[in-house]
Batch of 4 targets.
Target 1
Amino acid sequence: SREASAAPLASGATTRSSKRSSSSRDSGEMNPLVELGLSLALSVGLAVVTGLAARYLMAAIEKSMRMDMDGGGQDASSIEKRLREILRKRGQKEMPPLDYYETQMAQVVTDPDDIDSSFADIGGLDKTKREIYELAILPLIEPDLFQGKLVQPCKGILLYGKPGTGKTMLAKALAKEAAAVFIPLQLSRILNKYVGESNKMIAATFTLARKLAPSIIFIDELDTFLKANTTETAYLDLIKSEFLTWWDGIGTSSNAQVLVLGATNKPQAIDSAILRRMPRAFAVPLPDLAGRKAILKLLFKDENLTSEARDFIPKLAEKTMGYSGSDLKEMAKACAMVAVQERTADFAERRVMGQVSNSSKEQLHQQRKTPLRPISVSDMITGMKKVLKTGEAARSYGRFSVEEEQRIQQEEEVTVDDASLRQLTTMLRAISNLSVNQGGPPSFESDNSGENNNNNTDDIPNIE
């Protein structure tokens, strides 16, 4: 009976399916298999399009990132050519491959032959220069002498002193004397708005320094980059941690010939972890009398001076106590400009007044053919008056402002007192005139008798 009952059921099912298929074809409905295939193709196509769009978007973002980091710098070919030339001078024929971040840091690399200052060009600081030479330069030029455990080359040196004392110039002279590549580490080049890019730039700085060794990584204004923990964000803490990690030996081995050199005028603001890695610190003070003489002689060495002016240099050094090396250089420029200003004074005045003509321009052009007169003693005195030592102009203005404010305040106080006195005099005169017209005011005088005082209470006005 089961077989008998199943047969019609199967037959009925087949009949309905056939009818459904025929009805589906008649009504235009899509076959489920075709519908599934189209859905699958649409999903795959959408995934492919999404992947291509994401790839294009990532390429655009990466291009934007690199444009932000490039900052309109040199192209990779010119950078590589310049580095090849540096290595060729050292006898190295092969150029180590550089990644993108190393190429970016290579833009600021300075060839030691292009540095125009040496120890001989720095006046004074003889003891400091000698100690730095023994501590920093000898390990770079004679590495075989520093192989023992106790004579390992120093990895960090700090130069500190007031602004304008020549810390940056001393750092460049150190690189030139050691024939080391000079890599200035600039905070503006390292910081990036994309997370992780700053860490890659720091790592690239050390790896590039190793590939170009001997090299010096110089950080000017060290207190702004690696300052003590105050209000720093976690982002800057990560950058500092990355820098310390590479500096502490992971990125530089004992024979890497890489020196980190820092300069600051606020050594107390530097993180103690940084100071620990800079075991040697050298003060770069204001030049003393002998230093100022040496600096002035270097500044005026190739200039046209009168014999009196050249003999006046020691006297000028005595009169410039407290001047930094930068102040002395600016003063020397001011001395040399006096003769130029004398020649162009008439033309400059006409130019300012809008009265320049072709004839005056031609006259100035003719005067250019005549050499300038030598620098005189008077020019030196004029330059010294124009250029004060660092901060003196601001302090003088501050003292002048305080004195001027006090003077104005005293004048105002005197003015107020005179006005009050005149008002009081006018009021007393008015009261006096009123008293005369009305027979005088009530008398409060007594005759030293207590009895009279008690008996005359009726004459006392009521003040209740």
Target 2
Amino acid sequence: MKAGLVELLELYEYKVDDLAGGLEPKGGLVSLNRLRQSLIQSTLSGPLAKRFREIDARFKASRPGYVSIAEESSSLDIETIFIEEEGPDLVNPEREVLERLTEALYWARLEKDLGRAAKAFNQGKRDELRMVYAILQNLESYSATPQFAQDYNLSRFSLSHGIPGLSDPRVALENVEVGQRLLLELFREVYALPSKLNLPLEETVPYLRRFARRVLDSEGSLKTSIKGPNVDTLRRALEEARRQNLSIGQIRELEERLQTAAAEERRRTLVQEEDKNRFTAAIERISILLTRYLPVPRGETPWPQIPDKILGAQSAEYALKEIPPDTKVLTLRLMPQRLRLEGYEIAISQTGQLYGLSTGGQERSLEETPFSLTLRDAELNALRYKDYLHLRLEPREAATLSNLLAEGRVLAHLMWPEQAYAYLRLMRSLSMRFKGETNYAQFGLDSAAKYGDATVDNLQEFARKGLEVVKVRVEKTANWPALLAETAQAMGLETYGEDLRRELSEWLGFQPPSRDTLGGNIGSTTVGDSPSSIKAGSTVLSLRFQENEVYVSSTGLIPRKLHDMMVWMVPEGALVLAREAHRVAHTLVTIPQHRAT
């Protein structure tokens, strides 16, 4: 089939629909005729030929008596375009499985990306999220009307929902999860637009941009509150007062009210213009987001690649006999078994009709909902479709050196022993406060006795798991700084609470950490066969690479294994080390000393 022929046919249908609806096609009739002649002279067969004849019949009905030059001079009779009798395509069921898993992988990755975008949009007046909400509401209303499918130019669109206010009770835009769901819903709706509108895939984002502009430009999209009579009413009242020769005092009062109303109207006009400019910019940022993350050809993101082999496949065409060494991506047919991916042992179990997965001491039931398991230095992503499972071992989300160093800064505070591990006690108390009223006494000085008895690796693991829990709850709670301040005050740790708020804010901020936020003392080294050293204040640490592991040691202390990140306490504070393969980055965190308030 000629490349782009389907898209040309869709474009022709779209232009004919406009013509049939009484609108001038985009590009004019000359463009439409040129496109029609090109299709007539192309090789059309099968369903494409049938579809062209149906569209062309509508074109001729819209222009009675029209005959193109191409039809007069061409020996090709449109009515004799051959239609092949094609039987139903026999698609291998396991090919369909791979396609569905590819789609599921795309949406799972997109959801994570949109979580980060929602954080970026959840600032200031949240113009992007408010605009997205208005787009979705109007798209839902307009798509339910009969003219929607034919109105490519949106000439018959009428506004049904205005842009919500910043504190509109209908939608909790301050919640990051709500913002993420809004963006995901927008992507799903926009992804489906071509099928609803017979729209060329490349026109998806331009159409959405036009739709958003029509929403914004419609009267009533930006709500304003008008108190008292407007300028026209007051002007008529003043004219009437003069005709009736009312007193000078009454006329002067009306003149003052008219001046006040006129000034308010000018102010309101300026505010509306400013709001319109802000939302216009928001529409562009939304369009950029759609272009960046929609799959080609709708957008710029390539479809994920899934190997076309399946462990335990029923079809010999897709059968994978054994798992190659160092495999990180695998599709398998569900059955009880044990396998290894990149050094991780994974067990698939079955109980009746239910399947489960376990690895690294973690267990999950296998349903058709994507999930991830955080492992020691990787993330296991799992997708299920019917009786097939797709597994991917990937670097831990946000496990870049800079983000690991930022996380390590928070951990350094949590592991700081001052005031009986004040930061760690405060974080655990905050974690409970998210659930409701808390007995702060249970996080007093006595509760920290076990922290001092734990090994440094166990303490780090304990603090890191607790930090992950708090991270999830912080991202769901807009007023978490107030809860932290309340908790710190109840425990007499206000100064520690302010430090912890600052560190959490910098770590969880959308902007990637930099030398400015991490401090200018970031260093890095490459570990190899020869030992290397790092100086942190008055302490010198030795790094040794052995059997794909990095060991960190200091004089008189047992070496510690560096997985992805490590906090090493020193007299000046803490040294945070982050590892990616042979690279190790490090930064010295100076922790201020306080007294409990």
Target 3
Amino acid sequence: MEKTIAYMYLRLSRDDGDEGESNSIGNQRELIKSYADKAGFQIIKEYIDDGFTGSNFDRPDFKRMISDLEKKACKTIIVKDLSRFGRDYIESGKFLQKTFPQIGVRFISVNDNYDSDNADVNDTHLILPIKNFINDSYCRDISMKVKSSQKTKRQRGEFIGAFAPYGYKKNSKKKNHLVIDRNISHIVRKIFEMKVEGYSSKAIADELNRLGIQTPQAYKEDNGSNYSTGFSSNQSKWQAKMINRIIENRVYLGDLEQGKRTKLNYKSNKEIKVSQDDWIKVEGTHEAIVTETMFNVANKMMGRDILNRKTKPDFLAGLLYCADCGNQLVRRNQKTKNGQTIYYICGLYNRGKGCSRHSIKEEDILSSLNYILKQHIKYQEELFLRIRQTDLSKSEYDLDLDDLLAEKKKYETLRRSLYMDLEDELIDEEEFQSFRKSYQLKIKEVEQQILNRKKAYNDLEEILNSKENWLTGLEKYKNIESIDRQTLAFFVDRILVGEKDEEGRPRITVFFNDMEKLDILKRILKGAKKTKTSNLVSFNSMAIKVLSTEREGVALYG
């Protein structure tokens, strides 16, 4: 008796819980061969999708099989059961009830005792849809369980990514924990240091390429990982966007931010971005590569318009701003008979688009900064020495949020009153929408100020609990002869340069980092039981002005 030729289709998924031996590729093959021998079929070709989900039909060998079936060289498919064919009950139903009958394909599912050649109407139109629906529900249930398990691990601070971030590797003894990869961690630090020094991201990438440093992808591949990234696979050189991703990633602070993307649904591999508010963030999950100060300053510099220089940028890159228009100052060289004079002018003026010159010599501003920074460091040291001698507790200082809360309440009241004004026809619809938008914006701004203030107090708790560490950190800066770029960037947020006064002296205003925290510390000292207000009077008057408010800064004539 001549045997009927048939195709065999095998599938095993890594994500639907089918890793057991009963559903292994080998088991499926043996079961189908046994059935084929008894039922008079000759298997002429097998199609295998190993590691592909059954929730959709985007599988390479499945597509090849359908293409071959349409050529009508063979008209029979045999599978172990319906779940191996697919778990999407709608798409499975289309194939079994429409596509296969149209092209004359015979479909056999061994464990379901289903053969389309001798199935009755109930089998095809009632029993199969129910089984397909059950398979689809199973797939959805597994997907939900996997997502729930991943969420729990993320909330515990476990790293669940397939590959460790550049600069780290997975702990061989604890796979969900990151440890520093000492072979390349210095490259990560170099990237942050160069950004703090004022290099553009492109300049950093160019330097790494010049030094022959492997890209993250190349490094992983050389170490035996089938590595994939969000970048094009043919990118063998460092690029600015790679540098930016590293600098923005809080993993280098020892924190994990996971769940940034999610699959559209369990039937699709398409991923969508998740709102940053919904990311799962856990701090202190592993050893940091860079300090918080280094991280913050590098990210601040990345947000500023630093020129794409291939050589080292100027000392004040990303720090100098025009006090009138807010544009960055640009560096200029003027040749003189004694050499050259370096000075800065307003960037807007330099482009011929307005403002005024705001010219200042580099030597003048560096001299002023050297003095201001030394005084600021001295003040911080005195402040923390005073705190170390003071018995502080959280009950001895107020959160000082009453003014902000009152301001928020005021705008909320004004926003509510708009509805009555509109109803009484005191304002029209256009005015209503305009005022409403304005008040909502004000409320949002105040809420952010409240969050910032609370965060500042929480951060200060850490400072108060590690006074010695803070003073140790200041120790290396207090005896500096002249400031370097890194010291300047660590302490200074920005410098405003105003026009010259009647005597030809430019006015500069320096804004220091963490001024709000220092201002809070000053108020804490004033309110502490064992500290007298007069203790602050002996501090340098210029430094006291530093702490008065973030908006005021330090003013000094050159």
Target 4
Amino acid sequence: MLSDWIKNLLESTSLSGFYVLLLTFPLTIVQGVLGLFPYTILIVLNISAMGLTYGLLTSWISSIIVANLVFYCCRSFFSEWFNSKIKRKEGRYEKWQRYFELYGVWTLILLRTLPIIPNNVISLMASVSSIKLYAYFMSSVIGNLSQIWLYGIISSSILIPGRDTKWLIGSYVAFCIVVVVAFFISQFFKKQRGNRITADKQLHL
């Protein structure tokens, strides 16, 4: 059972409460760089050691730090190497690269929320795209919040079977509605801005 494995790991390391971050934060860096295991495991470890609220909060903050650290390092020091690596897998990720250019941060939020592409690959692809650092930071804040919130709902039902998670589910649904509405509003204004630019160009012809 997953819960037994987690219990054994925590007992073997003798870490409890916030001290579990001495184990999970370095593993978050490994996961963010190499993607050797699902981040869900670390979220579950944090929840087991710190409870649902602090477990989700520390998982969220850790994921934001690591996502931006990986993005910055990839773009600043390894951009050429990662760009060549992406090109070798162009057929596999071409669709998402195109969505990056079309929808920017919204594509990143979607990819962070749903387990479509590993977190390390998301950071890698973003680093060789035209997305700006601030936009990436905001997408990691919102996208990782969505991801961890969703995983928290799933894992809490396993780790804390008797806990009422209706408030967690309801608030997540409300959060998703706000994000979707914000997406459509941003696309509307983007289209309006594009129409104005086109009209201005036609006037100067």
